[in-house]
Predict the structure.
Amino acid sequence: METERILLRPWRDDDAEALFKYASDPEVGPRAGWPPHKSVEESLEIIHTVFHNDTNWAIELKETGEAIGAIGYLPASESELPAREGEPLVGYWVGKPYWNQGICTEALEIMLEHIRKTTYIKSLISSHYFDNPASGKVMEKCGFVPTGETCIDEKLTGTTKPTRVMRLEIYR
Ligand SMILES: CC(C)(COP(=O)(O)OP(=O)(O)OC[C@H]1O[C@@H](n2cnc3c(N)ncnc32)[C@H](O)[C@@H]1OP(=O)(O)O)[C@@H](O)C(=O)NCCC(=O)NCCS
């Protein structure tokens, strides 16, 4: 999946340093419910575990070849969201130096196109904290609509925060 400036591709071991550079920023992970990475070794471990599946991609900036973010989907049953049976949960982040340049919206748009073309998925769910409106904006720009509110106990960060639930119906 690609556009003129980004490529969505599987994570590789040699992305670990770039992953650590962007994911160690305390302004990134906690907004998505995970703690900042503490070492390159931990980032490599995340590549081997969390990112090691067919539905999680590195957002590569083509100009530099660097992985500057992540996007993907996973079974929503692994979350506390009020998901429909079998409905996947979408997640994403982008390194702070690249915020507000339309990169996440572009990545989500091409992932959604891939989902439409290659799967039978009928809808997707996601959510964002109320104090993270940029994420809600990304979803809105890609057609997600708010469906309610809930409170999530984030196991990885030990926080409990209200979140706005968003859903995209997929029409083919
Ligand atoms: C949320 C995130 C992925 C957005 O990535 P991005 O590449 O900057 O997103 P885009 O540039 O495509 O779109 C961001 C939109 O939010 C808007 N925005 C930014 N800050 C905002 C704010 N405080 N209030 C309202 N809108 C805001 C931008 O103006 C832009 O909208 P526009 O295109 O209409 O101007 C990025 O900020 C991030 O990685 N945050 C930390 C991790 C995270 O929050 N992940 C999602 C968890 S639900």
